[in-house]
Automatic annotation (TrEMBL):
Entry's family note: Belongs to the glycosyl hydrolase 13 family.
Organism: Mesobacillus boroniphilus
Lineage top rank: taxon: Bacteria
Alphabetical list of InterPro entries matching this protein: GH, GH13_cat_dom, Glyco_hydro_13_N, Glyco_hydro_b, Ig-like_fold, Ig_E-set, pulA_all-beta, PulA_N1
Documented EC number(s): 3.2.1.41
Protein name per the record: Type I pullulanase
Keyword line: Glycosidase, Hydrolase
Keyword flag Hydrolase: yes
EC top class named in words: hydrolase
GO biological-process terms attached to the record: carbohydrate metabolic process
CDD domains: AmyAc_Pullulanase_LD-like, E_set_Pullulanase
Length: 716
């Protein structure tokens, strides 16, 4: 790309408004006349306003005709000099959005052996060429593309193009840029070029998994593909890959199940995979030298090649990810895909910015890219073609890869209408597809009432949100590692803990909760972000006996699983996963991030306990009531001295095996005797040592002794 030298600049900022910038070094920034000239056009512009800037004079001019986007125009000043009319802020106007919205479902590549059709939305381009070549071809072919309605460019090449590499050369503001197709579904190594493939050749038999009756029936287990198997004792043959994660029957050093078989046996319903779409941060040809979580998105519709056995083969990564998804399905679990539509890795290098500069990203009041994401760019999801892209991409993964849910990273950057459109589109295929997201309130130039965040959850039915109120009430602040939550013995969080255990919908004296329905609350205390709970415990209480820390950890994790709402576990949480004190380990070595299967083997007693708690939840619908009315009707908190929590679940015969369940939570370091609501024979489902959906002992009487830092679940 060769930079264009201009004596002055002119921009189309609205469909009929042209802004001219004359530097003071150019005739002291003065001109009393400007003309617009182009094919069949030669007219004077009406100067509406003159603004003195630091380095130039800005002239805001009105045109009596609307320049046609895609055509070339020049602006001539009174001195006889001319400059090209560049595309300016017009692309961020509602009028541009409505004029150039394209509703077709054929963007990208449509292949059959006889011909391939390429389509690209680029309304501000004046010329586009398709660059096409075979893998070893040193002389690529160039095809002039044709502009059609709504700024869609297309070309049909009438021969078999399977395996051909391609890119687009786009001319905007007299500058040529080369870009990968944003709708590409196959790539060369490290995403340098798109590849034409026959999608019919990339099919993998899929296996249906049981459908959820309600979102609260889900139990989510978050995992990173490489972390699952890269440990020396994972038992996987193809460590750190799609196929390694797909292996079943793998064993640890002492012969215990690992990987997929272990996760299935734990009892979770869904595995949430950290991003698998193409990302930067790991060289696909030298993946051992780098590590990344995957939140550096580049190409949204192609699996990343760093987990593939042969990233040079464009089909390989596609087939192997599909095989992993099929393997998870064969174990009876669903797959939730972590999607990162809120930003791109580097805005200037993104196909979006190269093809339609300035359109796909939000800008602040000063015209600079907004930074609510913290990485220098926010996707402008409120624009029609950005929203369409997100919906199209989600539906591609749903229909082509048969995923069972989506987790939207930094969902608060996106707008409500986009997320509602996603939910509606997904419902057209299957309403039981899970959609969850991080609804943080982020500083992006979108009106507060349009952000897809927790504050606006009433406008986002059918979409779950990560509940930071739950996280911080039970564990303590994520951002103050020394702040301890309720499960860690801080009874300052007692009332908050009650509310979040009830699904955060409002119960008792609190008539209004954080959420309207429990299916909107994703309950968690640990995820890939920030310190693991074990590391927080170790750092905040370095002198505490590890046996006590393990009790606190077990209690907090059990509360996640027995709370109303959707429980979410970080992989390895059930065996005290540690990242050696590293908080955000997004590019730390494997030794920090891997699932340590030796650690799992050493803590099988805790794994069995958490497995039992999961079984209790799955066996009793009373722990996963689907709406706020049922929670208020069936769940009642008992009057107990602080810091104890006790609650009963009553009138629940149709929702399990019992007519009544009582849960006691003791976060203190003391043995405490509590009175039961009635003197009868109780079945014990969980105590300080064991948990099971089947009673393992019984107690008679009207009192029960609660061990320090423990849970007690009784049923009758």
């Amino acid at each position: 790309m060769i930079a264009i030298e201009r004596e002055f600049n002119a921009y189309l900022d609205q469909m009929d408004v042209i802004t001219v910038l004359l530097p003071y070094s150019y005739f002291e920034g003065t001109s009393d006349e400007f003309r617009l000239k182009g094919e069949g056009v030669d007219l004077s512009l009406a100067i509406q306003e003159k603004v003195l800037l630091e380095d130039a004079v800005k002239y805001i001019c009105l045109s009596s005709i609307r320049p046609e986007l895609g055509k070339t125009y020049v602006i001539i000043d009174e001195h006889g000099s001319e400059t090209d009319l560049q595309i300016g802020a017009v692309i961020r106007t509602d009028e541009f959005d409505s004029l150039f919205f394209y509703g077709g479902n054929d963007l990208g590549v449509r292949y059959i052996p006889e011909k391939t059709i390429f389509k690209l939305w680029a309304p501000t381009a004046t010329k586009i060429k398709l660059r096409l070549f075979k893998e070893d071809d040193q002389n690529p072919e160039l095809f002039e593309m044709n502009r059609g309605d709504k700024g869609v460019w297309s070309i049909e090449v009438a021969r078999n193009l399977e395996f051909c590499r391609y890119s687009f050369l786009v001319c905007i503001n007299l500058e040529w840029r080369e870009a990968v197709d944003p709708y590409a579904t196959a790539l060369t190594v490290n995403g340098e070029y798109g590849v034409v493939i026959d999608r019919a050749q990339a099919k993998v038999p899929d296996i249906n998994v049981p459908k959820l009756k309600q979102p609260v029936d889900a139990i989510i287990y978050e995992a990173h593909i490489r972390d699952l198997t890269i440990h020396p004792n994972s038992g996987a043959a193809r460590k750190g890959t799609y196929l390694g994660a797909a292996e079943t029957g793998t064993k640890s050093a002492i012969g215990m199940e690992t990987g997929l078989s272990y996760i299935e046996n734990l009892g979770v319903t869904h595995i949430e995979l950290l991003p698998v779409h193409d990302f930067e941060g790991v060289d696909e040809l030298d993946r051992a030298s780098d590590y990344n979580w995957g939140y550096n998105p580049v190409h949204y519709n192609v699996p990343d090649g760093s987990y593939a056995s042969d990233p040079g083969n464009p089909y390989n990564r596609i087939m192997e990810l599909k095989q992993l998804i099929s393997a998870i399905h064969s174990q009876g679990m669903g797959v939730i895909m972590d999607v990162v539509y809120n930003h791109v890795y580097i805005r200037e290098d993104s196909p979006f910015e190269k093809i339609v500069p300035g359109y796909f990203f939000r800008h602040d009041a000063h015209g600079l890219p907004s930074n609510g994401t913290g990485v220098g760019n926010d996707i402008a999801s409120e624009r029609l073609m950005v929203r369409k892209y997100i919906v199209d991409s989600v539906m591609y993964w749903l229909n082509e890869y048969h995923v069972d849910g989506f987790r939207f990273d930094l969902m608060g950057i996106l707008d409500i209408e986009t997320m509602t459109a996603v939910r509606k589109a997904v419902n057209s295929v299957s309403p039981d597809i899970l959609i969850i997201g991080e609804g943080w309130d982020l500083n992006t130039p979108l009106p507060p009432d349009r952000k897809a965040n927790i504050s606006n959850q009433a406008k986002l039915p059918g979409i779950g949100q990560f509940n930071d109120w739950f996280r911080d009430s039970i564990k303590g602040s994520t951002f103050n590692i020394y702040d301890k939550g309720y499960a860690l013995g801080n009874d300052r969080y007692l009332e908050a803990a009650k509310q979040v255990m009830a699904g955060s919908v409002g119960i008792g004296k609190r008539k209004h909760g954080l959420f309207l329905q429990p299916g909107q609350s994703v309950n968690y205390i640990e995820s890939h972000d920030n310190h693991t709970l074990w590391d927080k415990l170790k750092i905040s209480a370095p002198d505490q006996d590890e046996a006590i820390l393990k009790k606190q950890h077990r209690l907090a994790t059990s509360m996640v699983l027995l709370a109303q709402g959707i429980p979410f576990l970080h992989s390895g949480q059930e065996f005290f996963r540690s990242k050696k004190g590293v908080g955000n380990s997004y590019r730390s070595p494997d030794e920090i991030n891997w699932l340590d299967w030796d650690l799992r083997d050493a803590n099988m007693d805790n794994v069995q306990y958490i497995k039992g708690i999961i079984d209790i939840r799955k066996s009793n619908e009373a722990f996963r009531l689907p709406d706020n009315e049922q929670i208020r009707r069936h769940m009642e908190f008992l009057t107990l001295p602080a810091p104890l929590i006790g609650y009963s679940l009553t009138e629940i015969e149709p929702k399990g095996h019992w007519e009544k369940i009582i849960v006691f939570i003791n976060p203190s370091m003391d043995q405490l005797l509590v009175e039961l609501t009635e003197d009868t024979k109780w079945s014990v489902l969980a105590d300080h040592e064991k948990a099971s959906a089947q009673p393992f002992r019984h107690i008679d009487g009207d009192k029960v002794l609660l061990e320090p830092c423990s849970l007690f679940v009784l049923a009758k």
